[in-house]
Specification:
The complex is a heterodimer of chains A (295) and B (462).
Chain A: H1 2-36, H2 54-61, H3 63-96, H4 102-114, H5 117-127, H6 134-141, H7 155-183, H8 187-195, H9 200-211, H10 213-227, H11 232-237, H12 251-261, H13 265-294
Helix pairs in contact in A: 1-13, 2-13, 3-7, 3-10, 3-12, 4-7, 10-13, 12-13
Chain B: H1 2-20, E1 29-30, E2 60-66, H2 70-82, E3 86-92, H3 95-108, E4 115-119, H4 120-127, H5 152-157, E5 176-181, H6 182-189, H7 194-200, H8 204-217, H9 228-240, E6 244-245, E7 248-249, H10 253-267, H11 278-286, E8 292-296, H12 297-307, E9 315-318, E10 329-333, H13 340-352, H14 354-364, H15 371-384, H16 389-393, H17 399-409, H18 420-436, H19 441-455
Parallel strand pairs in B: 2-3, 2-4
Antiparallel strand pairs in B: 1-3, 4-10, 5-8, 5-9, 6-7
Chain lengths: 295, 462
């Protein structure tokens, strides 16, 4: 009994640093933000008093919030499914095939994840420029287009370009996570399936995929949470305000403008809580869906 | 076993240190630590010898918050030649974060700098409040006589509208113009003379015609400008009376007209289409794809000259449809500084010491706000001619002659508001949206209004 108590104490000791960090750098700021969200604190005017749920009422009727929510979900949805599909394909190739140089491919696929997002966005803006962009110049030279196309000036193409950039930046990371999960699947199951006459696709879909479901769930949820806080690429690639036509305005971008440019700390805090609630709802629904499937 | 416990505890302790090392950075570069942590307002002690003691007798460590170092470093170096014992530490904050940083520092009362600059985009926000800058016209400063030495519009922008308190001043005047490529102008318009070009650009309609001519003459390989929305906002809003007029969001006819000009520029392919993308614009200018760009004074020294040295001698400066200003930096004394006298001396030095201002204008190439020195430098540049880099870059043109001339036409100080920074961005976005065809005019204008209202909730919008 005494040994069990000592073991519990040591367990607490080991997780204490994480808990302290979580409390100090996450929970306390979150609670402070929550408190601020019930005030009209505006650093520009100096106002700072309790205003109840006025900020939340404003949030629910704020057209820009709805636009930013729609854009954030859209950008996430456009990149998540291709990303997971291609990452899974790469992971299967990394683990199941006999291709030489797999290590090199892993490195190359992971490399975009190491590059600063703002740098990627600036490069993309140069490539996709309307009259002088390198992509248009190439397409014009190849006679594939007659006039330069304004890739980042049309909402439809601008959103797809941003989604594609995020996909390119993160699919390598997802592939490595999936590959790790696949490697943990016991080979006995696969051998038994081979003996029973299963082909590659059947082995993957009936054995490997169900067994790596926790990994898929983890990648999906972390991608969801990260995707709903999308900021750097849409912020830098055009004018920083979501151009063209606010199609790239994400929730985090708008919160940043309200809180740190317009100095509306109170309303910006409400916005941040709104982002948190949105993320929590999406994550909760996804988690429940995945768990139901599992059971 | 005991050894394992010791190792485990050490590892846990190391983790604590690594987690605490992940605290958010202040994003602040500072030479030495410490600064002023004041919460009380400076007492208005009136001394007969305020600012008049032996220069070497002043001893202080001042904290000066800026968004760029070039000009302040020069100022401090020259200041210390006279006041060697007033140490001024520069604290550099990225320009986009400066307003928020200052406001939060003043709100908390922690580490408030003794002196700090405000960019044009938010200077009115600082000046119109009594929480940030001290009143230079009141005791102990009593510096009202400085008003007469500086450009009137500079003084008026730095003056609080409600009370008339003089809170901030600028050592520079960011007068605007159009910088164009001489070689292209000769080829397309048959002249590169700035006065003749000014006639070609003397209205927005003639500007559009000129843009069409550039496209036709170069078969579309050269564009009149890289960033039509920015140029239109720079050149058009000052004349329209600014973003705010009579306490309301300005959406008068001059502002609405900018939408139509943007439409033409985009539809007829007269602009490269970059919006606030300096990197892409610089690349295009390097490649000879851009005929001109609307920029104020700082555009020459901080943008064109350093980025395109190989094009020296091929640029000129002329006026657009209306005189305008854009950008610029104001400076004031923090209301809670513990060193009012030393701060006053620094401000007095950079704003009224003509010997310093002269050398600053020549060495840095900036257009100063001190009226007497403006005229002197114009004469000096006429005499020095191409021996000066700035004159050589403009192929012998004296930029001070141009800038002095533009100021004589009159700059409207009422064209500044505390919302300028973001209202300009929102207007550029609306112009682009309408110009590209993503929105109809009513929708684009409504979006501009909604954005401004979201940014400034108490705004009156008609």
């Amino acid at each position: 009994m005494i040994r069990k108590k000592r073991n519990i104490n040591y367990g607490l000791l080991f997780i204490a640093p994480f808990l302290i960090g979580l409390l100090v750098f996450r929970m306390i700021p979150f609670l402070y933000t929550l408190v601020m969200s019930f005030t009209n604190w505006n650093l520009m005017t100096g106002e700072k008093s309790f205003n109840g749920i006025d900020n939340y009422k404003r949030l629910l009727t704020d057209k820009t919030f709805m636009i930013s929510l729609k854009n954030t979900v859209k950008l996430w949805a456009m990149n998540i499914f291709p990303r997971l599909a291609i990452a899974m394909l790469c992971a299967v190739i990394f683990t199941q095939s006999r291709i030489k140089g797999k290590g090199l491919f892993k490195l190359i696929f992971y490399f975009p994840n190491l590059v600063n997002s703002a740098t990627i966005a600036i490069l993309a803006a140069l490539l996709m420029g309307w009259q002088n962009g390198y992509l248009n110049r190439l397409l014009l030279q190849m006679n594939l287009i007659r006039q330069p196309f304004n890739w980042l000036g049309q909402p439809v193409t601008a959103q797809r370009i941003v989604a594609a950039i995020i996909w390119w930046q993160w699919f390598g990371y997802s592939a490595i996570m999936f590959a790790t999960g696949i490697l943990n699947v016991s080979t006995e199951y696969l051998e038994a399936a081979t003996v029973d006459g299963a082909n590659s696709w059947q082995k993957f879909w009936k054995i490997t995929f169900p067994l790596i479901r926790p990994t898929v769930a983890y990648v999906f949820l972390t991608t969801l949470i990260g995707g709903l806080q999308n900021f750097e690429i849409p912020r830098v690639i055009t004018d920083g305000l979501g151009a063209p036509d606010k199609s790239l305005l994400t929730m985090t971008m708008q919160m940043h403008t309200l809180a740190f440019r317009s100095m509306q700390y109170g309303y910006g805090s409400a916005y941040a809580i709104g982002i948190f609630m949105t993320t929590a709802v999406f994550a909760g629904v996804s988690y429940r869906f995945i768990n139901n499937k599992e059971s | 076993m005991r050894g394992k416990r010791i190792v485990s505890c050490l590892l846990a302790g190391l983790m604590i240190f690594s987690v605490t090392g992940c605290s958010t950075s202040q994003n602040q570069q500072s030479g030495t630590s410490g600064g002023t942590s004041q919460t009380k307002e400076t007492s208005a002690v009136v001394e007969d010898d305020f600012g008049k003691k032996d220069p070497a007798s002043y001893v202080a460590n001042l904290k000066f918050m800026v968004h760029s170092t070039g000009q302040p470093e020069y100022m401090i170096k020259k200041f210390n030649e006279i006041y060697p014992n007033i140490n001024i530490e520069l604290v550099v904050i990225p320009s986009a974060e400066q307003q928020e940083k200052i406001m939060s520092m003043v709100a908390t009362g922690e580490d408030v700098p003794d002196l700090f600059t405000s960019r044009t985009q938010f200077v009115k926000a600082m000046v119109e409040s009594d929480r940030y800058y001290a009143d230079l016209g009141a005791a102990p400063y009593n510096a009202s006589d400085w008003r007469a030495q500086l450009e009137p519009y500079i003084v008026e922008v730095g003056t609080e509208d409600a009370t008339g308190a003089l809170r901030a001043l600028s050592w520079q005047c960011p007068v605007g113009g159009i910088y164009y490529r001489r070689s292209m102008a000769k080829e397309i318009f048959g002249t590169d003379d700035p006065e003749e070009m000014a006639q070609i650009f003397n209205s927005f309609d003639s500007l559009i015609d000129a843009a069409r001519k550039v496209k036709a003459a170069t078969d579309g390989s050269v564009f009149f400008t890289s960033d039509a929305p920015q140029d239109l906002v720079f050149m058009g809003v000052t004349n329209a009376g600014g973003f705010m007029k009579d306490g309301k969001l300005n959406i008068g006819d001059e502002i609405k007209a900018l939408f139509e000009y943007a439409k033409i520029m985009y539809e007829e392919g007269l602009t490269l289409g970059y919006v606030r993308n300096d990197t892409a614009t610089a690349a295009a200018i390097s490649e000879g794809k851009v005929f001109c760009t609307a920029k104020p004074t700082w555009g020459l020294n901080y943008n064109i000259m350093p980025n395109f040295p190989e094009q020296a001698g091929d640029w000129a400066l002329t006026s657009g449809p209306h005189p305008y200003t854009s950008g610029g930096t104001w400076i004031g004394i923090s209301k809670s500084t513990e060193y009012p006298e030393e701060c006053y001396l620094f401000l007095k030095f950079i704003l009224t010491n003509e010997e310093f201002i002269r050398s600053y204008a020549i060495d840095i190439g900036d257009y100063v706000s001190n009226v007497a020195v403006q005229q002197e430098i114009e004469k000096y540049m006429d005499e020095a001619g191409a021996s000066l880099d700035i004159v050589r870059f403009l192929d012998g043109q004296n930029p001070y002659t141009y800038w002095n001339g533009e100021l004589e036409k009159g700059i409207n100080p009422g064209a500044y508001s505390q919302y300028d920074e973001y209202f300009a961005l929102y207007l550029m976005a609306a112009l682009e949206s309408y110009g590209v065809g993503n929105s109809e005019f009513d929708k684009a204008l409504q979006q501009y209004k909604d954005d401004c209202l979201s940014y400034a909730p108490g705004l009156i919008v008609e």
